[in-house]
User: What shape does this take?
Amino acid sequence: AQSVTQLDSQVPVFEEAPVELRCNYSSSVSVYLFWYVQYPNQGLQLLLKYLSGSTLVESINGFEAEFNKSQTSFHLRKPSVHISDTAEYFCAVSGSGGYQKVTFGTGTKLQVIP
Amino acid sequence: ETGVTQTPRHLVMGMTNKKSLKCEQHLGHNAMYWYKQSAKKPLELMFVYSLEERVENNSVPSRFSPECPNSSHLFLHLHTLQPEDSALYLCASSQEFLGTSGITDTQYFGPGTRLTVL
Assistant: This one.
């Protein structure tokens, strides 16, 4: 069994300030990790994913996340947020071998304040 | 149209109604998924279809009935729902069924259908 915990349901942050959205997971097997973003009235979009290799993964719009196996975390960070980053962010985990269901967290709403 | 589309975007129904949600993907994918998104709860996987065959059914009540007539279309037939079934229902697709190649395929999501059961 696996689970994902996103402790912060809402994170307000001023524009151009840095932000970190926290994600912790539990799993008895090796994992793949994902961050999805959901803009208002839209479906989920994959932001970035960790499958293997470098523990630091980046997205095209400036977000990055680091896989920390010892702390079972995959926190999402951006050094300077923009109004357009206002959305809900979901962390997800799946096992890494064979068929493995993806388990999603409850989401964190990022509100960027002008 | 491109990507994954869902219709209707909003649906209000009574508990005795029968309605259907439609999902269509224009990506040439082989796998399609139904998810339920309720407020303050994790996204719940309901059904998975791979090459039009159901491969996952996560203990979903029988009042939800999926149908996959071809690899591009997925339906969710609704019958005698309960108010607690009110949620956002998301459809997704991926190139292959999740995990069959040992690599998790990226899922592409539709915008969802906001369902309200009165």
In short: Chain A touches chain B at residues 4, 9, 32, 36, 41-46, 49, 51, 90, 92, 94-106 (CB under 8 Å). Chain A has a mean pLDDT of 90. Residues 36 and 52 of chain A are 18 Å apart (CA to CA).
